[in-house]
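Quick start: what a row looks like.
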Amino acid sequence: MVSPHKSNEDKTHSGHGHQERKEGRNPNNGEQGHEHQPDSGLKQQLEKEKASASELKDVLQRVQAEFENYIKRSEREQRSFQETANAKLMQEFLPVLDSFDAAIEKMGKLPDSRERREAVEGMQILRKQFWSAMERNGAREMKSVGEKFDPEKHECFVFENAKDKDDEVVLEEIQKGYFMKDRIIRHAKVRVNKRS
């Protein structure tokens, strides 16, 4: 026969065990839920840091681009200044070149002699050396004879009426024109054909 007391004790122990197991699960479940819950404050802080880093990167890129543009602009201005200075210097040399050409032409008209030939040859050598130095600095002669008259390059001194030549063609250079690279440093003075 089963004692009533034993039956009650079993129920009591059984009830306690079930309650302990139930209570034992609850704390663990609560802790696990708490561990996986995101921290909203930390997330917002990270987003702010990312935004600040992106903004700083944009600022640095703009500063770098502006600095590179400044360097390029400075180089262009320096080249332009140098070319202008060289052009002015070449303009100062042009009358000297004209004097060489005039002297060589004048000596060429003198009576033939050994002295004259040597003098002309010496002047031609000097003229060639002088012009080579100008060429190295960007000077070049303007081709005019046989070209169509261009008011951007030519200065007409006189018109002529040559029936066998095309209209508005340069017949002769009275004074040579010169470029400094692509810049005109002296217009050519010319005779131009004008057919009426």
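That is the whole record. The chain has three helices and six strands. Confidence is low (pLDDT under 50) at residues 1-34.
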